[in-house]
Structures are given as C-alpha cells and as structure tokens.
Design a protein that fits this description.
The chain is of the alpha+beta class. It has helices at about 5-30, 45-60, 75-80, 100-125, 135-160, 230-240, 250-260, 295-305, 310-320, 395-400; strands at about 130, 135, 185-190, 190-195, 215-220, 220-225, 265-270, 275, 280-285, 375-380, 405-410, 425-430, 435-440, 440-444. The protein has two domains: about 5-165, Four Helix Bundle (Hemerythrin (Met), subunit A) (Up-down Bundle); about 180-444, paralog of FGE (formylglycine-generating enzyme). It has ten helices and 14 strands. The strands form five sheets. It has a four-stranded mixed β-sheet. It has a three-stranded antiparallel β-sheet with strand order 3-6-14, with helices on one face. Strands 7-8-9 form a three-stranded antiparallel β-sheet, with no helix packed on it. The longest helix is centred in the middle third of the chain and has 24 residues, at about 135-160. The two termini are about 40 Å apart. The relative contact order is 0.14.
Length: about 450
Amino acid sequence: MLATQTGVAAHELMLRISDARRQSDALFQVVRLDSLYGRPIPERHRIVFYIGHLEAFDWNLLHETILGLKSFHPEFDRLFSFGIDPVDGGLPKDQPSDWPSIQGIHEYVSRIRESLDDKLADALLESPAPTRDGFPLATLLNVAIEHRLMHVETLAYMLHQLPLAHKIKPLIDSPITLAPPVAPRAVEIPTGITTLGLSRDDETFGWDNEYEAHATEVPAFAIDQYKVTNRQYLDFIAAGGYEARSFWSDADWDWKGKEGISHPVFWKRVGGHWLYRTMFEEIPLPMDWPVYVSHAEAAAYARWAGKSLPTEEEWQRAAFGAPNGIERRYPWGTHFPDADFGNFDLHRWDPVAVNSLPLGRSAFGVDGILGNGWEWTSTLFAPFAGFEPFPFYRGYSADFFDGKHFVMKGASARTAACMLRPTFRNWFQPHYQYVYAGFRCVSH
C-alpha cells in the first residue's frame, strides 16, 4: 500500500496520469475516423467502446468515494464500465448503431478529465490521504494509470488486426536494430531459490494477484537462450506440426480444427512465400523475429521439439536469478529499463530480432527475456497463498482464476516501463492468437 504523497510524489503521479492519457490518445489517432466503430477482433468490443472505457474506469474508481463528485452521465458510466473476455464462444453481437456518437463520447471524456483534474492535485496532498476501502488515493491512481497503459497495449493487439488501409501510420518510429543471424542454443540454469510475488510491506505498487511474496526451490533445467524465432517455427510447420495429432492437447486440437488454424495469425501466405503483417505494412517474414502465437501453438511446438514450456517459477529464475543467489531488479541489473536493454515501453510498434539487444541479457545469459514479446508459461493463472482481491476491483484477477488462462511473463514492445517489475503477472486464454506473445522452451 502506498503511503501519503509528498508534494514531489504527488506531482510525479499527476505527470504519469497526463503521460498515460497522451499515450492512449495517440493510439486512437492511429485509427481512421470512419473505422472507430469497427471490431478488428471478433471476441472484443468495438474500438469506440475503449475510448469511453478508459475514462469511465477512472471516473467510477474515484469520483464519488474519493473526490465527492456526483455523476453527470450515469448511463455512460455503466455503458463503458466493463470489457469482455469470452472463452471459446459467446461472441458479441452489437451493431455500430447501438453505440453513442463519437462526439458525445469525446465530450464525456473531456468532462471527466476536467472534473478529476480539478480535484486530484489537492486531494493527493491531504493528510490523512483520502481512502477507499482502506486504500489511499495514490494506490488508486496507480491502478488507474496501469489499467490505462494495459489497454494501450491490448488495444494495439486489436488495431494490429484492423485492415491496413484503416490506419494512419505515425511519422516517428524507432529505427530497426540490426543483428547477426541467430544461433539457437540452450542455457543451463542450476538448482536454486526464486521469489515470486510482492511483499505487502513493499512500497512498490502491485496488483492483487502479485501478493504474497514467497520463495520456492527450482530444480535445475535448461532454457532457450533466445525466444523461438519465425524461422524455427517455420520448421515446425514444414514438418507437419499442425497436422500431427500427437503434438496437441484434446482441447487445442479441437480448437485448431474448428477454427481452421494452420499458421500464426501474424503470418500470411502469398503464392509460395510467407509475409508478416506488422502494424502498418506487410513485409517478407522476418526470420529472426520472435514468433507470436497462442499458448496452444506454443505448447504444440514445444512437444514437437521434445521440450516443454517453462513454469512460472522456471521463467522467473531464468530472468531475475543469478549464480551468486542474489535476485535482480531487472534481468540486466539495476539500470532503469531504457531502449538499450530491451524492446519495451512503447518505443516500437513491432518486434526486433531476438538477439539484437544483448545488453538486456540476464545473469545466467538468457537474451531478450524482458521485452520483444510476452512469454507463455505452462502455469495456469491462479492466486498465490494469501491472495486478497482489491475490494474496489474484485474481478480484476479473481474472475480469471478459472483454469482457462495461462500466466505470461516478460513484456512486449507495447508494455509500459512501470509494468516491468519482476512480480508483474499477465494472463490470457490458450486459444487467443492476437497477443504479442512468444515463448522459449525448457528441458530437464
């Protein structure tokens, strides 16, 4: 739980709120105006929902209990309050005409920002700090900031699937990083202790599923130095991996057959060649980029390779452990995560070669484990011992402790730096192909 803010800390929080809004506003500007009511991914809301949702979330979290403000549009507060996460079916059937005008939504957004900002700076300096369910305003603002930045990332997954002609490419993007050809190898990780979770005494903000901190011994294993590349995954396809029943679980095989899945969703076959769909163009398949696939596809590849996906504990040890037994803040040490150490924090729209940022190497010699794509684990998303849901957001984690979601660790190019802490946990359904998630394999 974060303590009462000093003036400096309060100012920093207000700057972070402003920057997060800037990032979400910039993302929506990628979409052409006539495409805002589109639904690029069938399982998700239309794009227009998220323009209202980000502000409705902040408003519903803060306006009455914390700031004493009265609702000025209860209908919109409800309409834009919750997203959807259908599991294998139950696709939304709403029509564009069911949603308000974009002008009305923008007016709602603007009024919320003005109302909140008029009160927030002063409220942050109150002593004692205003609270909700025992949590101070600073904690709630971290929830609002990271919630928005999570959507900046997951909305990129949606916009990636929007037809290229419906998007406007920004003028600025980071240059492509050149690297020598990838030479895959395994890194040996000795038996050792790893820590999962965040202590409740820690001053760092964390989501409810990150608590409680606990140590566990991880037996020795070997892990791929690099994420599995498009070239390696192409070998799996060429070997008939999508047609071999033995590599797939029953549920994954049924899903693959029902949906006609035969290759990663980011790939496109044209004539005798594979193209890769980046955010703004189609290019020849970049062989040394990490392959982005669903958990089902990653697990099938691992079986084909005679290996497996790492557990959450194995991944954590490979990323943050060290031969001297001291766990690191980041894989490379304590240096703030700038663009020299990994492909993260919104500097790029797309991946880079898996070996192109060696400064981000972990103490054990594992490359690119933080950034350039989340990494699937074999661990089902479940609570740690001592889990307590946030009372003001009870469904954030608990709704997904259903045995149908798998833990992902790491980060993608579109993950904000504040979520690069070792304890952060992400999760998705095994049949969701659109996430920026790759994987690496382990053997024992």
